[in-house]
Design goal:
The chain is an alpha+beta fold. It folds into two domains: 62 residues, Roll (Structural Genomics Hypothetical 15.5 Kd Protein In mrcA-pckA Intergenic Region, Chain A); 256 residues, Pseudouridine synthase (2-Layer Sandwich). Helix content is 17%, strand content 27%.
Length: 336
């Protein structure tokens, strides 16, 4: 994001604030001052911290991307705050924690934990839900901290300009090793999602997938796959991977028939109902591999709703051990 003022605004007296207001016409003056204080305003590539700093006629003013904090803060239930500013919150949700639900729900949710955390510091602070992850999945989520940011982030999701990538383990050797999946999905009365027989009856779901690794074990061949979502349907990845014969490891809703460990757990009575082992975990305790859905939101890219700067967040999947016998594919990650 840069700005070089055209005539008649160019003059030796044009100030930093005038440039910033042209760059970010919707931002408040307090937001612009905060950018200055944070050292994110550059004039001709040099940091500017004062509104009174003189600028040349041809000065190019730009705003540097925000630097996510390296220090993570962990809340109850294992919810981690990866980044926070006055407008957005980015968190890493653990498996087994609901993203959000209705007011009658007594189980903890990520939204409720963040709202309580914000209120403890400022009773006027707000946190708004932008999108969701399945309860059984883990990974990155972004929340808004004001109504304007909420509207902006929602718009980015509607326009599919936000990048969402997921790492997962699936049963079987995935062939071909990369591709695009397009299906029409419909939710049944029991909450399960299935492929619609008539595409007109469902909602379009699109994703790209890429095979990163595969290994053998007691439960057969398991493949490490990375998916990029272009739509955000309920249980989309789980249902679309099942549709091509590769259910996600640990999926007790769609994949238990292919998961020997889940079959054994059901037979012994340690895996109960649709909620499975996740329903019985202790607060804050993370389920181990094969006790959880091996699906993790590992990369999230969006534009900051107030600065328009691109922000990228990554999170390592907690279920990716590197046991002997794993065969790494001879391919590199796509450039970020």
């Amino acid at each position: 994001m840069t700005d070089s003022l055209p005539d008649p605004f160019k003059s030796s007296n044009s100030g930093v604030m005038l440039h910033l207001q042209r760059l970010m016409p919707q931002a408040s003056r307090s937001t612009l001052r905060r950018l200055l204080a944070d050292g994110r305003v550059l004039a001709d590539g040099k940091v500017v911290r004062s509104l009174k700093a003189p600028l040349s006629d041809h000065a190019v003013v730009s705003i540097a991307p925000a630097r996510p904090s390296a220090r993570q803060e962990t809340l109850p239930e294992g919810l981690e705050i990866a980044y926070a500013d006055a407008h957005v919150l980015v968190v890493v949700k653990p498996a087994g924690l609901l993203t959000a639900t209705d007011e009658k729900e007594k189980r903890p949710t990520a939204l409720a934990l963040l709202q309580r955390h914000a209120a403890d510091r400022n009773n006027k602070a707000a946190v708004y839900l932008v999108h969701r992850l399945d309860r059984a999945a883990s990974g990155l989520l972004v929340f808004a901290r004001d109504v304007r940011s909420l509207a902006n982030l929602k718009m980015q999701f509607r326009r599919h300009t936000i990048t969402r990538e997921y790492d997962l383990l699936v049963h079987g050797a995935v062939e071909p090793p990369a591709g695009k999946l397009t299906h029409s999905l419909v939710e049944r009365g029991d909450g399960r999602v299935v492929i619609a027989r008539n595409s007109a009856d469902g909602r379009k779901a699109v994703l790209d997938y890429q095979l990163l690794a595969k290994r053998g074990g007691d439960n057969g061949v398991v493949s490490h796959v990375r998916c990029r979502l272009y739509t955000g349907r309920k249980h989309q990845i789980r249902v679309q991977m099942l549709a091509i014969g590769h259910p996600v490891v640990g999926d007790d809703v769609y994949g238990q028939g292919n998961d020997k460990r889940h079959q054994q757990a059901r037979a012994s009575g340690t895996l109960a109902g649709r909620r499975g082992l996740l329903a019985r975990r202790q607060p804050g305790a993370q389920p181990s591999l094969h006790q959880r859905l091996a699906l993790h939101a590992s990369r999230l890219v969006f534009k900051h709703p107030h600065t328009d700067c691109e922000m990228t967040f990554t999170s390592e999947p907690p279920f990716l051990p590197k046991p002997p016998g794993e065969h790494r594919l001879g391919q590199k990650k796509k450039p970020r």
